[in-house]
Each structure stands twice: as structure tokens, then as C-alpha cells.
Automatic annotation (TrEMBL):
It is a lipid-anchor. This is RAB GTPase-like protein A2D. NCBIfam families: small_GTP. Keywords: GTP-binding, Lipoprotein, Nucleotide-binding, Prenylation. InterPro entries: P-loop_NTPase (IPR027417), Rab (IPR050227), Rab1/Ypt1 (IPR057289), Small_GTP-bd (IPR005225), Small_GTPase (IPR001806). Belongs to the small GTPase superfamily. Rab family. The keyword Lipoprotein applies. It is found in: Endomembrane system. It comes from the Eukaryota.
Amino acid sequence: MSPPEDDSYLDSYISTIGVDFKIRTVEQDGKTIKLQIWDTAGQERFRTITSSYYRGAHGIIVVYDVTDQESFNNVKQWLNEIDRYASENVNKLLVGNKSDLSDKKVVSSETAKAFADEIGIPFMETSAKNASNVEQAFMAMAAEIKNRMASQPANSARPATVQIRGQPVNQKAGCCSS
């Protein structure tokens, strides 16, 4: 699922191999927000590559295929990876993609919503094919990040510092001192 750039969709979409990167600038509440979107390939074989991209992320959208039960089953593992490698209060959003394929749907909206509620993250369904809710998913994530960042104290973004103060050392006179 990529953010819509020119309202185009390719029926012959090729799965991401490794990492795909896009930059998108959005306007929200009079503020300009720059989104760096890293599509890190949900395939199992790229798990070791993708975990390094979690560090420093402010928000992560986990996308599964509503027509593929195994894809949904893997969500829990991906969320465990995020909890392991991402910052503690990273924003998360669960997205079920391919909602346009209702006749092939195997993961119900109710099941996914109940799971998302259980772990305390927002949920929505999208269709990259007809651009349903794709823009809304990115805007919702941007809003969540903006709200979290606005509620943090200004100095919380800086790393903690440790001050080291030396204490004078009293030395006893040795054999060579006067």
C-alpha cells in the first residue's frame, strides 16, 4: 500500500523486494508534515532487513491482506518485532488492504477490529486498487504522530545527558615531594 501520487493503480503490482522509499508532504492543522514512507516488505525472508528500519520511526503502519488469513496471522509477529526494535511509544496503525475484494475476504473487519482494540491500536481497511481509505490511513498516522509530538515536553526529544563532576583527590606526599 503506497500513498496515492497520481491516482494510478497497477493490476500487475510486484511485491516490494527489500525496501521502497517515498517522501510525501502533507498539510495538517496549518502545519506542514513531511512523511518518509518506508515500504519494508512484509515477506518473512526480509524480516532481518526490516527490523533496522523500525529504529527512529515515529509511526508504523502494519498492513495485511484481507484475502489471506496467513497474512493476518503474521501481524502479531510483526507487532512483536516493532515492540522489540522501535521506540517505546511509536504510533501504530493496523490496516487491512484489498477491501475491494469482498467476495474473497477471509479476515472479517470485526475480527481485525477486535484484535486492534485488544492491543490498543487504531484499525482501518483500505483498497489500494480503488484508493479507498489509503489517503486517510496516512493522514490518520500523521495526525497521531503530530498529536503525540505536540504533547511531549520540548526537551524530551533530546537524548538524556549525564553530567560528570570530578572530585579533588587528596594525595599524600610521596618520597620525592617537597
